Amino acid sequence: MRAHDNLEHYVAAALEGDDVAVAHLVRATQPVVWRLCSALGTRGTEEDLVQETYLRAFGSLTSFRGDSPFQGWLLSIARRVCADDVRRRIRSRRLEDRLARFPQDPTAPASESVNHLISTLDDDRREAFVMTQVMGLSYDEAAQLLDCPVGTVRSRVSRARAQLAATVRQARAQ
Question: Mind giving me the DSSP string for 19-75?
Answer without folding.
Answer: HHHHHHHHHHHHHHHHHHHHHHS-TT-HHHHHHHHHHHHHHTGGG--SSS-HHHHHH
